[in-house]
Amino acid sequence: MRQFLTPAVWKQAQNCLLGPWQASRWRLQPLLMTALLMTFVCGDSLEERFESARAVVVALRPKRRRPGETVGGFEKALARLPMYVLRRVAAAVRERLPKILHRRWVTGGFVVFGCDGSRLECPRTAELEQHLGEAGKVDSAPSVWLTALVHLATGVVWAWRLGKGTASERDHLKHLVATLPAKALVVCDAGYTGYGLCRDLLSQGVNFLIRMSSQVPLYTEKQQPVEEFREGIVYYWTDEARRHKAPPLRLRLMRVTGKKRTKDGPRSYDVWLLTSVLSSRQLSVSQGGQWYRWRWESEGFFRTYKRTLSMVKLKSRTIALVHREAENALLATQLLLAMTAAALPPAAMSDSAKVSPRCALREFRRECQRLARPLRRPPLGRRLAKALREERPGRRSPKAVRVWPCRTPHKPPGAPRLLTMADMQKYREKGATMAA
Known about the structure:
Helices cover 41% and strands 18% of the residues. By secondary structure, it is an alpha/beta fold.
């Protein structure tokens, strides 16, 4: 972990503390290391994870002053730690990712990221219910909404943003755009359609690839039936944009056709993708379809965070500790995936070779056990180099194989509405007449 959490990173975090920060027996480095290791170690409760994580920190720092011994003191010290210190550490780790993952950082001339969101359930305490409220169904538990950017070529999470359970993932993406590097391309599902979001991404020089639905109106220069459309230039212009006299956006629409296996046999389906890359030489239809299939890495990250690391429900009972628990767990997940991806040999750098979070977590826990009971094992970096997923053939079957009770069956998005430029001119003339 030293290649990410360097002494310079700890120095930057210490300098972020504007005033004197006192937390009895806790110092900044052992406090954050204990919080990070609590995500990796085994335990069903906070007390069990704290004891295991503190033992590892003491073993790693045998000649340093020992931290506090109670979980209550640890939580008080962590609650007094400002959030911007945690965000500065995450930003410092993020700055090192392109250098460490340089072999697979750029794909086809772009740095491809996937954006998606998910809810994290919280305990039903009075403080959390007051600050977080309900999200989803009536009388539901308080929850936190998490939106994350994932580097699709490696599966390593890049940046994230937390909010209430009712937060907008589109607004979260607008805030996360500032963290994107040069040549970034964001891949999103149909939940991120919107004129305002596309305009903001274009204004900041960020390319995108967003799936369209039947609720999106697009304009073409010539009349083209949807059944015959394959690829071409379109204009995105909504009613709200016309009312605010905003110009139409010149984009490119691609139609990706695939096949999937169903009970009735193979069936073809269409995926409509809207992109800001206007040249087919820079982004072909087949490459766009492949990158949209890579978007499943975002779902894989949430599965790792919520299931593999047991963060499907946060354990803290105050609003200050909930945000710090989620932030530390996200940083720990980023370190786990980045360490494993950096340890992979050059022979495993193909597009099909992906990191196995379960195998990496198992080796990390074995290393923690080795600190307490020395065993003759290969170094951790050599073991992480073998933490690869099983290579399986390309999956074409539906993700949901059965109908779950109390859940609406998923209906894939349809084709966008294709209008002509003449319709756009009619809207303009109508708006000018109404203004007069």
